[in-house]
Amino acid sequence: MDHYTPDNFSLTQSVGFAINKARNVLVTEMDAALKDLGITSQQMGILLSMRRGVAATPFELSRLLGIDTGLMTRMLDKLEDKGLLERSRSLEDRRVVNLKLTGDGEQVAARLPEIVPVVLNSRLRKFTKTEFQELRRLLYKFLED
């Protein structure tokens, strides 16, 4: 079913516009909350993914976070420059780069669960539990291929 046609499409009334605007608001608020840690919301995703063992290579992080490999490389460069992660070549396959959080990276990542929920809960404060669950369900449905 087509929900939009050339006749009924309006940029500011589209789902894409609302999702993008919501993302921008959330990124701005998250970046402000993370400022004292010296990281951005995108870098937060990398650190949390690595700390939880969900991803350990640039390719895995790119796929998980939906970030192109060029941007991922630049973000990893910044995190490495800050001393939060280290890169090493795989001994089995030199094409593979393995990532590891440094001690400082572990400390920053350990603080994120104290900060991130506060920002998210503030944004979600007007939602009932049922509305929150429905929003999450619909967003994941939207992301399905």
TrEMBL record:
InterPro entries: HTH_MarR-typ, WH-like_DNA-bd_sf, WH_DNA-bd_sf. GO terms for molecular function: DNA binding; DNA-binding transcription factor activity. Pfam families: MarR. Keywords: DNA-binding, Transcription, Transcription regulation. It comes from the Bacteria. Residues 8-144 form the HTH marR-type domain. SUPFAM superfamilies: Winged helix' DNA-binding domain. This is Transcriptional regulator, MarR family. It comes from Caballeronia arationis.
